[in-house]
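Q: Now give one record:
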Amino acid sequence: MKKTHVDVLAPVGSFESLHAAIEGGANAIYFGVEQLNMRTKSTPSITIQDIKKIVSICHVNKVNAYLTLNTTVYDHDKNLVKLILEKSKKAGVDAIIACDIAVIMECSKLKIPVHISTQANVTNIETVEFYSRYADLIVLSRELTLKQIENLVREIKRRKIKGPSGDLIKIEIFAHGALCMAVSGKCYLSLHSNNSAANRGACIQNCRHTYTVIDKDSGEEYDVNNEYIMSAKDLCTIDFLDKILETGVSVIKIEGRARAADYVIKTTKCYREALDAIANNTYTKDKIEQWKNELSSVFNRGFWDGYYLGRKIGEWNKTGESKATQKKVYVAKGVKFFTGKKIAEFKMESGNLKKGDSILVIGPTTGVKNSVVEEIVVDGKFTNETVKGESFTIVFPHKIRPSDKLYKLLETGYAQDYSVSN
């Protein structure tokens, strides 16, 4: 199938997500380590020691690996910055995503490619020109419209603004996932309220709470529009991805390093398919509706189109929980796999599993594999149901491992929450 020239950049917060992103069709992934990335609090499982393994897995699969080092950096962080960058250089990381000048300068010394993070809040051509001496790719501010993005790309070509590689500067924008109420993710609310700095990757997400306004003169309390007034819905651009491509961007980024592997594979797959459909002139309303249904099935806070189409104000949540149309419930752990017969053995640890159930198997090497239970065998006998404490086998088309977890998928009853202004 013909591919578009636009890359899909997928989020990785675990090895499960890494394999999910690769299987979903990502051209590149981004991940962070230690406390100098913007998801320190929510994705603690990846360490400096994992950098080499992640890069190796990516390169075997012809996928680029980008490491995020995009927090505020203090003087006492400099040794850790150097250690991370030296390990990244040695491992062959394809680029460092950064916004702090100290990090950018250190990358320049070590000759490591740099991508300018959205935290740098790049919104005009002069800023693009400034960063071009250090980086070949810039992630633009999330608050720009498609028209503004198109004008920036046009100016880059007109002025022939090139990065260190000698190629024209490439532009990356966010396409899907959580949107922070702060400008390009620069927020101090968590720091002021709980001394937990969002700009150091330690956001407690108190903007996602519901708040009441009090009239101090009368003492009256008001819930503002009955909404979570600082908690934006998730960005979703699958409806107008063709318009995004017309701006000339080179990379679309999926947000979600703190989200589960099933979210990663589903979102990556949908946007990969949509880009390919645009390239093949098969980007239809029916396909868009199908992708929207798939995207709605995994974690989301409802969808809106961000500021790309000219919005002046955001769309806010009316609830604090996910609006996914499906939820996964953990029921069993992997035991062994019989390769010749494609039989997987599991041990039930919670609830029950029945014939006809839709399931997901997720693991750090397996990634995300889905199937439907066609038959269950317990103690050598076929049965319609297995329960907690029992060992059982099922026919499963993919290899499973003892580190894998089996989930059954349940409908939540949520209707698709999706709005666009085009």
